[in-house]
Automatic annotation (TrEMBL):
<dbReference type="InterPro" id="IPR050555">
    <property type="entry name" value="Bact_Solute-Bind_Prot2"/>
</dbReference>
<keyword id="KW-0732">Signal</keyword>
<dbReference type="InterPro" id="IPR028082">
    <property type="entry name" value="Peripla_BP_I"/>
</dbReference>
<protein>
    <submittedName>
        <fullName>Sugar ABC transporter substrate-binding protein</fullName>
    </submittedName>
</protein>
<dbReference type="InterPro" id="IPR025997">
    <property type="entry name" value="SBP_2_dom"/>
</dbReference>
<feature type="signal peptide">
    <location>
        <begin position="1"/>
        <end position="24"/>
    </location>
</feature>
<comment type="similarity">
    <text>Belongs to the bacterial solute-binding protein 2 family.</text>
</comment>
<feature type="domain" description="Periplasmic binding protein">
    <location>
        <begin position="59"/>
        <end position="304"/>
    </location>
</feature>
<dbReference type="Pfam" id="PF13407">
    <property type="entry name" value="Peripla_BP_4"/>
</dbReference>
Length: 342
């Protein structure tokens, strides 16, 4: 059910009101000694920031997040940087684009000092970001919507170029000798996912099919992938575009009656399950865009702009990926994934 705008505004206002006393209490163990000490000190009421700048409030509004390990990692990076930078950090998310717009508007109405926004459905965010610019609120876009970022007045975009990431995946598939790939898009209309699939297809050069599934209903997605694998025995590889879908695809291979090892599963993004799959060999490779860096660098770039009028990127994105990870990387990754920073 769509939540009315006044309720979204009220919710964000309440969170903003609590940010000064509780906004950093959710910080936990992360990399970087100084930032880790700051987060612990802040959580215990000791302040603990690494700088003496004014206590600005930055709001991050994303198109996804609840119960998703990827977005938990983005958020953790942002919280870590906020603790270090003496920033009140406020996070909200909504998969419904109209509701995401309302959350951004609520942050503008609360006169936050900076905004971090994802642009999965970029055109829908144009008008509200124009309002942020008119209000003098600096904006950094993260993760999705690189092509819209500068046009909508953002200072910089932090993330990976999705077409570049797709080409990296396609080149890896080709090098691994795969013949026929099924690329699973789990959010129809998401520009970044289309770019991943198209980039991979172009670099791969072999047989290619695209399957659209509902990523918010993993049992249904699992069944759809299994049905496709049963119907087309020529497919030897499934490429998923998120870690939750990777696990569903692994189950789909068994559901389709295929022998273990007969169908390779590869994916974008990491989770503890993906790292375990890399280590066991059930997943061939993962394309990591380092979500922790997206949150961390997003907050840091806003802080640098407020403090020193610094801007990074020069009109190009501040790239956090792609990084191809395979079985040899799994042992080192396990600890970092376990603490929620990879």
């Amino acid at each position: 059910m769509r939540r009315p705008p006044f309720l979204l505004t009220a919710v964000l206002a309440a969170v903003l009101g609590l940010a000064g006393t509780a906004g950093l209490a959710g910080c936990s163990s992360t990399g970087g000694l100084r930032a880790e000490q700051a987060a612990r000190s802040a959580a215990s009421g000791g302040g603990g920031s690494g700088v003496s700048t004014p206590r600005w409030t930055f709001a991050m509004v994303t198109h996804a997040g609840s119960g998703d390990s990827f977005w938990d990692t983005v958020r953790k990076g942002a919280q870590q940087a906020a603790a270090k930078d003496n920033v009140n950090f406020v996070y909200s998310n909504d998969a419904n684009t109209a509701n995401q717009v309302q959350l951004v508007q609520a942050a503008i109405d609360q006169k936050v000092d900076g905004l971090l926004v994802t642009l999965a459905k970029g055109d829908a965010m144009k008008a509200v970001l124009a309002k942020a610019e008119a209000a003098g609120i600096p904006v950094i876009t993260v993760n999705s919507g690189e092509e819209f970022s500068a046009k909508f007045g953002a200072l910089a975009h932090v993330g990976q170029d999705e077409a570049t990431a797709g080409r990296a995946a396609g080149a890896e598939l080709k090098q691994r000798g795969r013949k026929s790939v099924l690329c699973v898009i789990h959010e129809q209309g998401n520009v970044g996912q289309e770019q991943r699939c198209n980039g991979a297809k172009a670099a791969f050069g072999g047989a290619w099919q695209v399957l659209y599934v509902n990523g918010t209903d993993l049992p249904d997605a699992r069944a759809a992938i299994a049905a496709k694998l049963q119907a087309d025995r020529s497919v030897d590889t499934v490429l998923t575009l998120s870690a939750p879908l990777a696990n569903a695809a692994l189950q789909s291979v068994a559901d389709a009656g295929r022998a273990a090892g007969s169908t390779e599963e590869d994916t974008f993004d990491l989770s503890s399950q993906v790292v375990a799959g890399l280590e066991s060999g059930s997943i061939g490779f993962a394309v990591d865009q380092q979500p922790y860096l997206q949150g961390y660098e997003g907050v840091d770039l806003l802080w640098l702009y407020k403090y020193n009028l610094n801007v990074l990127g020069g009109g190009s994105p501040v790239a956090t990926g792609p990084q191809i990870l395979t079985r040899k990387d799994a042992p080192a990754l396990a600890g970092y994934v376990g603490r929620g920073t990879r």
